[in-house]
TrEMBL record:
It catalyses: 4-CDP-2-C-methyl-D-erythritol + ATP = 4-CDP-2-C-methyl-D-erythritol 2-phosphate + ADP + H(+). It is an enzyme of class 2 (transferase). Its EC number is 2.7.1.148. Pathway: Isoprenoid biosynthesis; isopentenyl diphosphate biosynthesis via DXP pathway; isopentenyl diphosphate from 1-deoxy-D-xylulose 5-phosphate: step 3/6. It comes from Candidatus Flavonifractor merdigallinarum. Keywords: ATP-binding, Isoprene biosynthesis, Kinase, Nucleotide-binding, Transferase. This is 4-diphosphocytidyl-2-C-methyl-D-erythritol kinase. Belongs to the GHMP kinase family. IspE subfamily. InterPro entries: GHMP_kinase_C_dom (IPR013750), GHMP_kinase_C_sf (IPR036554), GHMP_kinase_N_dom (IPR006204), IspE (IPR004424), Ribosomal_Su5_D2-typ_SF (IPR020568), Ribsml_uS5_D2-typ_fold_subgr (IPR014721). The active site is at K11, D137. Residues 66-144 form the GHMP kinase N-terminal domain. One of its GO terms (biological process) is terpenoid biosynthetic process.
Amino acid sequence: MAEMRETAWAKLNLTLDVLGKRPDGYHELCMVMQSVALSDTVTIRQGGAGISVRSNLEFLPTGPTNLAASAAIRLCEAAGRDWNGLEIVLDKKIPVCAGLAGGSSDAAAVLRGLNRELGLNYSLQELARIGEQVGSDVPYCVYGSTMLARGRGEVLTPLPPLPWCYVVLCKPRYSISTPELFRRIDGVRLTCRPDTAGMEEALQAGDLAGAARRMYNVFEDVLPRPVGTAVAEIKRTLIEAGALGACMSGTGPTVFGLFETLDRAWDACTTLRKVHKETFLTVTL
C-alpha cells in the first residue's frame, strides 16, 4: 500500500432518545441516523515511524488519541498486523465537536480503507465490531445510510432510506460539553420523546414531509444558555425559510433543516451564513 483515500461522510440524528443509564455507566440510546454528503477525505500513506495524524486543523491530536489513529491500531491488532509506519492525513470539512460524528466517520473510513488495501476481507459487520472499541458512533459510520441505532449506538438495524433532499446545516459558535448534557438528562424527567415508530413508518412510506415532522432530539430540552437560545433561533430561521423540519444533531450544537427545493435551501443557507460562519448546504445519501 503506497497511498489510499477514503471518504468520511457526516451523520445526522433524525431522532435521538435517551432511555436511561445502564449499569456499565453508559446510556441506553435510541436514534435514527442518516448520512449526508458533507464529508472529510482520509488519506493513509506508508512511511515514518509509529502512527501519526496530520490535518488541515492544527488543534486536532496527532497521535493515538485521534480516533482515526485509534481505528488503525485496533484494526491491525485484530488482524495481527504491524501498524508501525502509517501516516493518516485528514482533510477536514465536517465541523469539529458539532454532533455530526466527524471524528467517528474518519475512524470508520480508516477501517474501510485499510481493510480493503491490506486485503483483510473483513465484513462491514466485523469492521463495525472493531469500531465499537474506538467510539460509539463508529459502527454506524462504518455502514452509513439510514439506520436505527440502539444500545450505545452499536446495535444497528437498516431502515428504508430517507427520501433524497437538500440539507442545510448550521453550527453556532458555542461549544457544548457532552458529559454535562448527559448529567442534565439524568437530572430531569423527560416529558417529550421522539416518535421513533412514526419515523420508521414515514421512512417505509417514502414520506419526506412525514419524516421531517417527526424529527426530535431530547438533548434540545436540556441545553444551557446561550446554546439553547442559538439553537432555537437557527431552527426558527430554517422553518421560516421553508424547511420541512429542523432538529439538532447529536449532542449539538449543529442544527439542520430538510428542504425539498434548492432555492429555499440556498436562501436559508445564505441567511444563516451571515451570522454563523459554519453553515453548509448539502444533500442526503
